[in-house]
Amino acid sequence: MAGQRIEIMDIRQLIQFKTQNYSNRKIAKTLDIHRNTVNTYVKDLEGVPYTYQALLKLSDQELSSLFTPLNEKQFDRYSHLMEQMPSLRNKMKLVGATLENVWKDYLHDNPKGYKYTQFTKHYRNWCKQQKVSLKLDHKSGEQMFVDFTGKHLQVINPNTGEVEEIEVFVAILPSSQYTFMTAVRSQKQEDFFDALNQALRFFGGVPKAIVTDNLKAAVAKITKGHTYVTKAMKLFASHYNCSAFPTRPYSPQDKALVEGAVKLCYQRIFYPLQKQQFFSLSSLNSVIRNLLSNYNKIQFSHRNTSRLQEFLDYEKKSLTPLPISSFEMYEFSRAKVQKMGYAFLG
């Protein structure tokens, strides 16, 4: 980092290297310090009325007092930027946000802050340290990813004792990672669209697009160059005034986030459920809702916030309002009019 403060022992080594006629570049490489930082310290040392040999005889306190306040100011500026990084990252999630726009806001609030090149460098370095991906930078309210889990839950018929395998539907808003989960009896269209209705009501709004896996309930046909959604999926999207499209076949990176959410649901929700027995779908979903509420409140490991807090602070306001009524399933049937003028349906 250019302009960083260095330890007093490093300063003494720097002075020793200068007595040996080391170049600033060689000192920077040897001490693993940014070259511009070395240049700044050497410039300060050249402005004091001491030789390098005399400087080495000074105490640590005397040596530290020789440097201009600029180093502290640079360090304070860097520390201040690092403190703002989480809020700057959240601004990047807003629709239409670019790094240049966020930098302009930063500079407006901090007139003596970093210029654009240094700002972007520090931002990207911070993202790497936080393990934040810059490739898939999801904007608030743009998409909702949905999928069914590969593993099933079970409901026992109280009359016969028969065990029924239950499908589990998961939806996630990728910007905040706020997650919805519910159990349904099948992946058929009526259950799938009921789960979608529940998800949008749970989120309290509609994203710009719904991204599904290649489910039979959502996808009608897959060709080499295009994937066609079902009529019912088109009607659902039209009802909620959004778009709907599936992930690309054989492109796991398109659905990495929802699959990651599924794995976390296995750990946080499926595992506790294995210790219980359920005799109705409603009782199962009641427990799922409680576990899901706790799951969304868990803080991220690298950030002092949770999925729920991220959703309430940034993503919720980016969703469009829900329509008055939920989507209702349509059934389509093609019939041929007979010679006597009748058409038979069924």
Automatic annotation (TrEMBL):
Coiled coil: none annotated. Pfam families: rve. InterPro entries: Integrase_cat-core, RNaseH-like_sf, RNaseH_sf. Residues 136-329 form the Integrase catalytic domain. GO terms for molecular function: nucleic acid binding. It comes from the Bacteria. This is IS21 family transposase. It comes from Flammeovirga aprica JL-4. The lineage of its organism: Bacteria, Pseudomonadati, Bacteroidota, Cytophagia, Cytophagales.
